[in-house]
Specification:
By secondary structure, this protein is of the alpha+beta class. 40% of the residues lie in helices and 20% in strands. The chain has a three-stranded antiparallel β-sheet, with helices on one face. The chain is elongated. The two termini are 37 Å apart.
């Protein structure tokens, strides 16, 4: 999903001060829920983090399919069926390092890409840190 195309009008309205507080919170929660917020500008992403830390918005969750893939990856690791390969990233049109698992079915074998490694990218520049704790909103919180 192209976050700018999908949410650009709404984010623009937020940035221009055209949304009520309730509309802004609803927008940010939707951006967080769909993971689109992390593909927008840094100021929007940091605003989302502030709203999460303040308990106004809830952090996004890891999808069931991602959890299932992670379990498959752990199983492949336990069976020593992992390898590191170079694959072409269709979006970025460049080769990237990828963790692959060997999938065997009878005589057929297939390498299944599971995770793109950051390679030479600095993870602190490319990614926002995960939210380590979830705080529930507390009424009367005077921090």
């Amino acid at each position: 999903m192209d976050a700018d195309r999908t949410y650009g009008k709404h984010v623009s309205a937020y940035q221009q001060g055209e949304l009520t507080e309730a509309e802004s919170v609803k927008l940010f929660q939707r951006l967080i829920d769909t993971d689109a917020v992390w593909n927008l500008s840094d100021d929007i992403a940091y605003q989302a983090l502030d709203l999460i830390e303040d308990g106004v918005c809830l952090p996004g969750t890891v999808s069931d399919s991602a959890r299932a893939n992670f379990q498959s990856l752990l199983s492949a690791a336990a069976d020593n069926q992992l390898c590191l390969m170079s694959c072409l990233d269709r979006e970025e049109q460049r080769c990237v390092p990828v963790i692959c698992a060997l999938n065997s079915s009878g005589d057929e074998r297939e390498l299944v890409p599971f995770a793109i490694l950051l390679g030479h990218a600095d993870p602190y520049e490319r990614l926002l840190p995960p939210i380590r704790e979830q705080r529930s909103p507390q009424s009367g919180d005077d921090e």
